Amino acid sequence: MKRFFQPIQKDGSSKKSCFSKEDGCEKTDQVTEEEEKKEPLKFVTWNANSFLLRVKNNWPEFTKFVSSLDPDVIALQEVRMPAAGAKGAPKNYGEIKDDTSSSREEKQMLMRALSSPPFRNYCVWWSLADSKYAGTALFVKKCFLPKKVCFSLDQKASKHEPEGRVILAEFESFRLLNTYVPNNGWKDEETSFQRRRKWDKRIIEFVVQSSDKPLIWCGDLNVSHEEIDVSHPEFFSAAKLNGYVPPNQEDCGQPGFTLAERRRFSGILKEGKLVDAYRLKHEEKDMEGGFSWSGNPIGKYRGKRMRIDYFLVSEALKDRIVACEIHGRGIELNGFYGSDHCPVSLTLSRESLGPVPGPDPDPDPDER
Q: Long-range contacts for 56-64 (Cβ within 8 Å, ≥24 apart)?
């Protein structure tokens, strides 16, 4: 995979890669001992709802946001960039398509944007789908390169997760998981309820089996855990598609707010010993700025909002959570930068090195 923020050469290739492939994962180049001691502390997650559209229509505003916040890691979901490979040929899910005139033009537009500050200070990894659908990206500052990067939950398979829904980066003291979780859908079909049940089962297996190292799990998780996480609980609980009512009452309602999804999510948090960083820092409902997704400003979903983008952290990191903020506000989508989701950020404190020794106690007066 290439470092796509580098300028495109005349032959369409990029400059030297940030990493090399090994055992199905991708290990980064060697960094200095001093750099290895550093680890990222500030993170942003955002469902861009087409990264190319954001570059075309909202780039100055989003660039200003990134420059101001200065995150060490940016996790993107729903980038909607097609994977490289001609029609009918095997795909390279870590590369952006550029084998047609239109795809080359789109890729070059993206590369120009990413070769400018502040984005040129990051390495970027892609995990993409066959078409302009789903997909994820991970930007990490060059001074914080992970030890390795994988693209599947099992961490061993060389292939990417279907539809590019996973990027897993391992740092010295924790793992960072960026996911675009499949939407539950409205019906008990293979591409709806069944797909989401399988995903949740795999996730709970992953968080349990990966407990040897603390985890930061971020992304569009497509679930609102509690009633406090939606603007209008009754509206979302009663939502239907074309009047259809699932036979199981637990599957009724808005995708992302069904009882079945919420209960499974509770199980994932419990089994994985994970903490919802935003809710830890914001216990009360915030009708103005407490939701990361907002419905279309026109129509019945106007003003209907959900919190479905998260930072979940292992309990071992709980005391290091300094802040977790949602950066969009209001039903007019301020701070959403053209998407229907807004960025969410997490800030950690530096790892504690143990208690700082205090001054020696006063000596016994008789010993002075």
A: 56/109, 57/338, 58/337, 58/338, 59/113, 61/337, 62/337, 63/116, 63/118, 63/119
